[in-house]
Model the fold of this input.
Amino acid sequence: MTKTLHRFFIHPTALCEDRVLISNRDQVHQMTRVLRVKEGDKFIGLIGNGKEYEIEVMEISKKEIVGRVELERECQGELPIVMRVFQGLPKQLSKFEEVLKHGTELGATEFYPLITANCEAQEIRKRERMEHILKESAEQSERGRIPVLGPEINFTDVLDGGWPTGLEAEVTLFAYAREDSVLLSEVLADMGSPKSVNIVVGPEGGFTDEEVAAAHKQKWTVFGLGPRILRTETAGPAILSALLLGSFSSLK
Done:
């Protein structure tokens, strides 16, 4: 049985040709003290470029780890599409963390906290913790890139003027709990395989009638998820799952 190698995102400057020098104190501690990596062991190094590097540990000291690249290959954990999740900011930070964890596992490339009419919170706190969650989730799920955690976005501005430059997508999916005439299964059947998808999910309480009307005006795809009402932290991952099993199931 082939042993699964530990995976670590390392700073790009740690890699120079076939030599690797890891000097980040926390990472050295994790590798040597927690995971007991020893000289002669191998691990997968990632620098966020979509490639993975099989590295053999050559030297270990208290302050650094020196390794040598044995093999370079394309990471198989990334899809050739952009999937952005615009998550209505929940009251509890833990719910947003769940979206980051599961969304990363399911292939989301970017996350944006969305400030809507029903949001009580107006900003994301503890961004460093959120970035750490994204990194750990990307390592665990064998991703080749760490998803982006973008700035807060005011939904009113988007509804008035469209997506900010650089965040446009071929398809924008707007999840509305009370939509029963168009369901996600029907949307997926007709969508094909776009190269970019924006997924918009409301906070607790969902979207207002005015926000739904504005989404229709923007020509977004407004759809429902069936007769059950999903929690705000469940809806985004559910949509990502449907996309991967439906329209994008043939992509590698």
About this structure: The chain is about 30% helix and 25% strand. Residues 159 and 215 are 7 Å apart (CA to CA). The helical segments are 25-34, 93-105, 127-140, 155-161, 184-191, 209-217, 232-245. Residues 82-245 form a domain with the Alpha/beta knot fold (CATH 3.40.1280.10).
